[in-house]
Amino acid sequence: MTEVLEVNSLFYKAFESLNIKQMESLWLVEDYVQCFHPGWGLLRGWSPVMTSWKRIFENTEQMQFLLTEVHVEVRGTIAVVTLYENLTTRVGAQAMSGVVLATNIFERRSEGWFIIHHHGSNVMNPPEPPDTPTVH
């Protein structure tokens, strides 16, 4: 479980860094990987998923996450992490914040854990953050 939490943390550090190479290193290079960004359609396959991250990174100047209610379930070689992404982002002078409910699914290989699925959905009425959030 600790290894999964570490890779999940690296995912959000890569997200905040806006560095595509860091993001690519965390995803399993397979045709079955999937990603669903809030407001986008479902993306399937390594190339479409990485293209989406490139587009996000090229059009964003800053992102910061405060992760809350992080929960991990490990079943054999698959791990599921659910959490709230309390996100602040900036594009130009425009700063925005919001809450996204996310599911990250990881697959264990001999080299470690890799992301195979990320799903984020906007939350209109988020819960109050607990006193002990995870900050990135």
Which short descriptors sum up this protein?
7-stranded mixed sheet; 136 residues; alpha+beta; single chain; globular; 3 helices
What is the topology?
Blueprint: H1 2-17, H2 20-26, E1 34-36, E2 43-44, H3 46-58, E3 62-75, E4 78-91, E5 94-109, E6 112-122, E7 134-135
Parallel strand pairs: 1-6
Antiparallel strand pairs: 1-2, 3-4, 3-7, 4-5, 5-6
The stretches of 5 or more residues where confidence is low (pLDDT under 50) are none
Morphology: globular
- The number of helical runs is 3
Order of H and E elements: HHEEHEEEEE
Describe the biggest sheet? Answer: 7 strands, mixed
Q: What's the helical proportion of residues? A: 25-40%
Using DSSP, what is the number of strands?
Answer: 7
The largest beta-sheet arranges its strands as 2-1-6-5-4-3-7
Based on CA atoms alone, the radius of gyration comes out at 14 Å
What amount of the residues lies in strands?
over 45%
Distance between the termini: 19 Å
Structural class assignment: alpha+beta
The pLDDT mean sits at 92
Oligomeric state of shown chains: single chain
